[in-house]
Each structure stands twice: as structure tokens, then as C-alpha cells.
Specification:
single chain, 95% helix
């Protein structure tokens, strides 16, 4: 095996390791953003329900 082939193999291994790390980071960020959106939607629904309940109690 010559020197060029060795560096090519090491470069491919390094590229795979870096890509694996970047994909994990990307999925972590996307999961965090998705979770944040779900929490915001649920909070809006709960806020609307609480507002409706307190408004109907004041009228009664």
C-alpha cells in the first residue's frame, strides 16, 4: 500500500466520523426545535382552555 492510498483511507474514515457527528448534531437540534413547537402549541391550547373556563365562571 503506498502513501497516497493510506491517506485516502484515513481521509474517508475521518469524513465518515465527522459526518456521523454532524448528522447527530443536526438531528438533536431538529428534535429540540420540534419539541419546542409542540410545547408552544400545547401551551396555547391550555391557555385558551383556561381563559374560556375563567371567562365562563365570571359570567355565571
Amino acid at each position: 500500500m503506498n502513501k497516497g492510498t493510506l491517506w485516502t483511507v484515513l481521509g474517508v474514515i475521518a469524513a465518515i466520523v465527522i459526518a456521523w457527528w454532524l448528522v447527530n448534531l443536526l438531528f438533536s437540534v431538529l428534535f429540540w426545535l420540534f419539541k419546542l413547537v409542540v410545547v408552544a402549541v400545547v401551551a396555547l391550547i391550555v391557555f385558551g382552555v383556561l381563559k374560556y373556563l375563567f371567562r365562563s365562571r365570571e359570567r355565571g
